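Note to self: keep these together.
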Amino acid sequence: VQLQASGGGLVQAGGSLRLSCAASGRTFSSYGMGWLRQAPGKERELVADISSSDNTHYAGSVKGRFTISRDNAKNTVYLQMDSLKPEDTGVYYCAARNFVGPLSRESYNYWGQGTLVTVSS
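Structure:
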């Protein structure tokens, strides 16, 4: 699976951005998909995940503000980010997993390149 993330940019606090991740391959629908981010000087963390059966999981810091969704017909996963905060700044990566179980950044088999999100105060 090859993944291509897009949609990052500079936004003021309180604003919104929508990230997209286009996947290659005919088996996209069978993968769980995640968005992870890495802030400067910090470890990469799981932000949101959507399973092959559309079950979603969010980090506590983004719950209620971010929404992950997928369109299997377009082989694309999205991350709608609302009410952005400066602490949401970082490089956002999309990733795909075959793994089923408790999620962590190690759960993912395939990674896209990152897209930078900068939230100004």
